[in-house]
Amino acid sequence: MSYEPEGEHNPFVASMESYRYPFYGTQFHPAKTITMYNDDSGTNHTWGSDLLNRSLVDFFMSDARQNSNPAGDFKTVQAAIIQNDKLLVTPSYYGEVYVFP
User: Fold this and answer.
1) Predicted local confidence at residue 3, as pLDDT
2) Is 98 helix (H, G, I), strand (E, B) or coil?
3) CB within 8 Å of 14: residues ≥ 6 apart
4) What pTM, to 2 d.p., does this model score?
5) For residue 48, how far is the Cα from the chain centroid?
6) CA triplet 86, 69, 18: central angle to 5 degrees?
7) Which class for 48: exposed (0-12), middle (13-18), buried (19 or more C-beta within 10 A)?
8) What is the tens place of the pLDDT at every residue in 29-50?
C-alpha cells in the first residue's frame, strides 16, 4: 500500500547526506512523526511509514553514539539545554516552539 496525497505534487528535498563526511540533514524529525496523532496533521501512519521513520531514528542514534566528544560537565550541559529558552505555546502547531533572544 502506498500513500499518495491529493492535489498537485511538487518534489522537494526532505533529507540529505554528504558523500565525503558523516553529515546528515533532515527537514523533519523522524522520531516525532511516529508520535504525532493530531486529527488534522495529515501525518502518514501506515506500518511502512512508521517503520521507515523508526529505521531513520535508529540509524541516526547509532551514528551519534559513535561520537566520543563530551558535551561538558553536568552544570555546563544544564546551562545549554533548550528548555532554558522561552517556550511559545500556539494552538496551530503540534509541538514545542522556542523563542531565542
Assistant:
1) 55
2) strand
3) 26, 27, 28
4) 0.60
5) 18
6) 85
7) exposed
8) 888 888 877 767 677 888 998 8
Burial profile 12-22: b = 16 or more Cβ within 10 angstroms, e = fewer = eeeeeeeeeee
Which three cell numbers, joined as nine digits, stand for 97?
A: 516552539
Contact 16, 24 (CB under 8 A): yes
Task: Name residue 78's amino acid.
Answer: Q
Cα of first residue to Cα of last residue in the chain, in angstroms, is 46
- Is residue 52 within 8 A of residue 28, CB to CB? The reply is no
Q: Which cell goes with 92? A: 496551530
Greater confidence (92 vs 80) lies with: 80
C-alpha cell at 30: 523522524
